[in-house]
Each structure stands twice: as structure tokens, then as C-alpha cells.
Design brief:
alpha/beta; Aspartate Aminotransferase, domain 1; 3 domains; Aspartate Aminotransferase, domain 2
């Protein structure tokens, strides 16, 4: 009981000069919780003394832990360009600077400057995307999962949607097409088998309750061998012949032709727009190389109906997303691909990667063992499954540490590499030119530490 009485008074303790520059309310909250835990430890006889300096230190540690940013910049040295765990596609610094004025000022997000009345937020980007893709209209929501849900809920609530069994995908976070359909109110009509679906399977399943023929891109897997699927162009024909809506959830549809023979491995938005589809949707932050967004394009009459769905207000994007997406789409329209970091990395040659890897090697040769490694990596983000692209990495060996230990040391310094063939690698497919100096300094810290 004597020890309990020695716990400082909260008001006196928080007046300590060590807390001078801290938020008083937050400090009081932390101290009350700290002292409550302290009482429990005393009563359970887990401690037999109190050190006020230690209490001050613990309070400040907790304060800094709460107030420091949880999201932190890291160096992606995994080689995976569209790394879902590391924020997917990068935004070019110059592009972001151009958008900064919009984000920090009042703007005409929903105001028509010409007519002096309320405007539509999607009008700012529709003209660029329509020109780029040749579509009638466009709608932007917060991601492609939202796009799928909105389309199904708008056009197929309590009606059937025909989908091949080979396309009933599950992507990251247990996002499953059958579950999304169920939540949206649509009724799933499975056709074909896992490996084979024919045109007749669609035709034989159409009835008076059918609303839509849907195709889903196999974003993170592929079916090889004895297999067959029906192309979207044929699905469009069948939908038109039966007065139905055709819809392709493209996942990560691209606009710029892909290198390394990947062009036929991933759906091209431009290719499918030639067939005048009802609706397509794809992600903004995958192969498009922009911000997180779900981009829905297609015929104006269907986009207009989507805009009238009350759910759109819950799924809409803000001014920053629209401004960044507009800049990126403008860059694609003008073929300024250097303003799209995802595309820059994708098209970087192994000779360029080798040059950067050699720069780092020359800087750290005297600090640790390192060697150039010809390797391969993945684009990531569920795109081009099972398709690897060439890359160059630097193998790092520090002291007698095992690869797992080296990986941990680099990770603690916010450099995320990978282990391959029992070696810790820094893959230059995703290391930016201005990050080489940072890596050199971090390696010095790791070795000296």
C-alpha cells in the first residue's frame, strides 16, 4: 500500500518540463492509462519500486508512438513493380506537384465555371478518357471492386448474370466474384466447367430472367493445357442478339502495348473498345499506373444509369484522386510515358538496370560482399500471372549473417528486398535512380551498427 501511495499525482506529473511541447490532453490520457497499469502491477506484486524518470520516459515513448506517422516511405527492392503491400503504382513527383495546387485550394470540383452553376465531378476527366479510349462515357469509383458491385447492383439486382465457372475468381482479401454477386443482389448463373466453356453454354443458359453476360479476367492465375474460353467479342455479339448487357471486369486492363511478349497475356482496353461493348471496368493503380480507382467505361445510356444509383455517393472519389487520374490519363493521351513510373519501370532494359546495379556495387564493394545477379521478377498486382520478366539484382552478404538476418536489417531500415536461392537480393527493376545514394548510406549504418 505504501508503494501505491508513491504513484505521482497526475496533475503534478504532467507538469514535468519534459512534456512542455506535447499535447496536454494526450499526455494526461497516456499517464492515466500508464498509472492504472502501474497500480495493477503493484497489487499483483510484479514490481517493488517506482522510478519517476522511467515513468516520464515511458510516457514520452508512448506519446511518440501514437503521434508518429504509421505510413512510411520504403524503398521497394523486391523487383515487383505493382506491389500491393507497398502501395502499388507510384505517382511521378512532377505530376503530384502539378496537382498540389488543386488539393490545397478551393476548386471547381462540382461547379460549372462557364454556366455558373452546379457541375458534375466526373466531367473533369470524361473528355480525356473518352478521347483516349473511344468510349461514349466514363464513371470513376474508388476501386474496381466497387465498379463490379455497382454494375451488378444497377443492372442485375434479382436477375441472373451468366459467368463461366473458369472465371469465378478470388483475389486478395477474399474478394470473391460469387460473394460480390450475392451482396449486390445479382443471381449467379454458372456455366461450363473449370477448364472449358463454349458459346453454346452461354446461349443455352439465357432465359427471361437473364440480365447480363459477364466476363471476368483471371487476374492472379491462369488455366493451361486442355482448356477453352469464349472471347469477349463473341460475348458482346451474343448479348446484342439477345438484348442483354455485356460486361467485362478486366481487373488490370492496359492501354500501352506491353513489352516482353506480355501483350496477349493481359487484356487491352483499346482492343476491346473496338467492339463497342456495353461496359468495361478496370483498376487505375495497376497497369494503368495511376491512383487507386475503378474506371467504368462504355455506352452512355448505361453509364447514365450507373450515375443514378444511390450507392454511387458511397463509392465516389475525391478531388485529389480525380486530379491525379486526370494528369495520368493526359500523359497517356499525349504519350508522355515518362510521367507514368509503372510504365518507366516496366520498359527499363536490363542494360539500364545493370548500369544502376553496378553504380551501387562500386559504392559498397569495400563495405560488404556483393555481386550482380541476372534474375527475373513479376509485374505484380495480380497482372500477367505466371509470367516473369527479366531483371538485374545485387546479391548482398554482410559479415556472417544469414539471408533472413540481412533481410531483417534492411527491412528495419525501410529497404524491402527479397530472398532467392538462399541469397538476399536488391532487385533494380523497382529501385529508383535517386534511391541508390540512400541505400549506400543505409548499408553503412547497418554495418557500423
Amino acid at each position: 500500500m505504501i508503494l501505491l501511495k508513491s504513484i505521482p499525482k497526475v496533475d503534478k506529473f504532467v507538469s514535468n518540463p519534459a512534456f512542455k511541447n506535447c499535447s496536454k490532453q494526450l499526455i494526461i490520457s497516456i499517464v492515466k492509462e500508464l498509472f492504472e497499469n502501474l497500480r495493477e502491477e503493484i497489487l499483483s506484486q510484479r514490481i517493488d519500486s517506482i522510478n519517476e524518470e522511467e515513468l516520464v520516459s515511458k510516457t514520452l515513448d508512448k506519446y511518440n508512438q501514437i503521434t508518429s506517422s504509421s505510413l512510411k516511405k520504403v524503398i521497394n527492392a523486391t523487383g515487383v513493380i505493382i506491389h500491393t503491400n507497398l502501395g502499388r503504382s507510384l505517382i511521378d513527383k512532377n505530376v503530384f506537384d502539378r496537382v498540389k495546387e488543386i488539393a490545397t485550394s478551393y476548386n471547381n470540383l462540382e461547379y460549372n465555371l462557364e454556366e455558373g452553376k452546379r457541375g458534375e465531378r466526373y466531367a473533369h476527366i470524361s473528355k480525356i478518357i473518352c478521347k483516349l479510349l473511344g468510349c461514349e462515357d466514363v464513371l470513376i469509383v474508388n476501386n474496381n471492386a466497387s465498379a463490379v458491385f455497382l454494375v451488378l447492383n444497377t443492372f442485375a439486382k434479382n436477375k441472373e448474370v451468366i459467368v463461366s465457372r473458369g472465371e469465378l475468381v478470388e483475389i486478395g482479401g477474399s474478394f470473391r466474384i460469387p460473394d460480390v454477386m450475392n451482396s449486390s443482389g445479382a443471381i449467379l448463373k454458372e456455366i461450363g466447367t473449370t477448364n472449358k466453356t463454349h458459346t453454346k453454354d452461354y446461349l443455352n443458359s439465357i432465359n427471361e430472367n437473364t440480365a447480363m453476360l459477364m466476363k471476368v479476367h483471371k487476374s492472379n492465375y491462369s488455366i493451361e493445357g486442355f482448356s477453352q474460353e469464349v472471347g469477349f467479342e463473341k460475348i458482346i455479339d451474343m448479348a446484342n442478339e439477345n438484348s442483354l448487357i455485356d460486361y467485362y471486369d478486366m481487373g488490370s486492363g492496359h492501354i500501352v502495348d506491353l513489352p516482353y511478349g506480355l501483350q496477349n497475356k493481359e487484356p487491352s482496353v483499346l482492343d476491346y473498345m473496338k467492339f463497342n461493348p456495353s461496359l468495361l471496368s478496370f483498376s487505375g493503380d495497376k497497369l494503368l499506373g495511376s491512383v487507386q480507382a475503378g474506371i467504368i467505361v462504355g455506352k452512355k445510356k448505361y453509364i447514365e444509369k450507373l450515375k443514378k444509383n444511390q450507392l454511387l455517393r458511397m463509392l465516389r472519389v475525391d478531388k485529389l484522386t480525380l486530379a491525379l487520374l486526370e494528369e495520368n490519363m493526359k500523359a497517356l493521351l499525349l504519350e508522355k510515358y515518362e510521367e507514368i513510373p509503372t510504365l518507366k519501370m516496366l520498359f527499363k532494359t536490363t542494360d539500364e538496370l545493370k548500369e544502376n546495379a553496378t553504380k551501387l556495387k562500386n559504392e559498397i564493394d569495400s563495405l560488404c560482399k556483393c555481386s550482380l545477379v541476372n534474375t527475373s521478377t513479376l509485374i505484380g498486382g495480380g497482372t500477367t500471372p505466371n509470367q516473369r520478366i527479366p531483371s538485374v539484382a545485387l546479391s548482398i552478404q554482410i559479415k556472417n549473417y544469414k539471408p533472413n538476418k540481412i533481410e531483417q536489417l534492411f527491412r528495419e531500415n525501410k529497404i524491402i528486398g527479397r530472398i532467392e536461392n538462399d541469397k538476399f537480393l536488391l532487385d533494380f527493376k523497382t529501385i529508383q535512380d535517386d534511391e541508390i545514394k540512400i541505400i549506400v548510406e543505409k548499408i553503412k549504418e547497418i554495418i557500423n551498427g
